[in-house]
Amino acid sequence: MALNFPSNPSLNDFHTEAGRRWQWNGTAWQRIPDPGAQGTTGAQGATGAQGAASFTINNNADNRVITGDSNANTLNGEANLTFDGSTLSVTGGASFTGNVSIGGTLTYEDVTNIDAVGFVTARSGIRVLAGGANIVGATTATSFVKTGGTSSQFLKADGSVDSSSYITNIGISSAGSSIGNATTLNFIGAGNTFAVNGSTIDISIAGGGGGGGVPT
């Protein structure tokens, strides 16, 4: 049986003749083989790994710290807790159950307890409302003021206050005549005595010893 093919085929053209398919390869027509019978279906392959679960982030915005939520696959962007890569900002209270180490400067107000290894600087003073202040080492101050105290009182080392009156200068008189004021009296010789009567001191000078008030 004669086969009639197109006379001017183009590359890869198909032609069907006598129930057969042919394809032009640029030089000759090549018969395309008939497909064979379909084979049986192969065994099913193993199930692939499950893909990553998706999450929903509520209330998210720039620099907000992301926290978990009681709902599965749900996260929250915290408006009061932000971090811009160098500064952590907390709006509201913060609770720490362990130690907190700070390499820079810590500025704070209304702190219950302070345990500092270095210096503690208070810009507007220190107010101790209860419990007192336990200071180990020297305390240097330009002045000490007792609340409710007066200029005539003395603050003792044990913390008590002495309201007694003490002599700040001595008026010297002899035979009714005033000699002057002194802050120190030196008695030279033995046998000199003195007695305190109220705010007056009676001085007895033994004969031959000689004595006098010497202002210093």
Write the layout of secondary structure elements.
Layout: E1 14-17, E2 20-24, E3 29-32, E4 56-58, E5 64-68, E6 74-83, E7 88-90, E8 154-155, E9 161-162, E10 170-174, E11 177-182, E12 193-197, E13 200-204
Parallel strand pairs: 4-6
Antiparallel strand pairs: 1-2, 2-3, 5-6, 6-7, 8-9, 10-11, 12-13
- Tell me the number of strands: 13
Query: Residue ranges: pLDDT <50 for 5 or more in a row?
Result: 209-216
Please provide the ordered H/E string of secondary-structure elements.
EEEEEEEEEEEEE
Q: Note the overall shape.
A: rod-shaped
Secondary structure class reads mainly beta
Biggest sheet layout: 4 strands, mixed
Question: How would you explain this protein's 3D organization?
Answer:
It is a single chain. With 216 residues, the chain is mainly β. The chain contains no helices and 13 strands. It has a domain at 170-204. The model is unreliable at 209-216 (pLDDT under 50).
Summarize the entry for a quick read.
With 216 residues, the chain is mainly beta. It has strands at 14-17, 20-24, 29-32, 56-58, 64-68, 74-83, 88-90, 154-155, 161-162, 170-174, 177-182, 193-197, 200-204.
Descriptive terms for the model:
mainly beta; rod-shaped; four-stranded mixed beta sheet; three-stranded antiparallel beta sheet; 0% helix; 216 residues
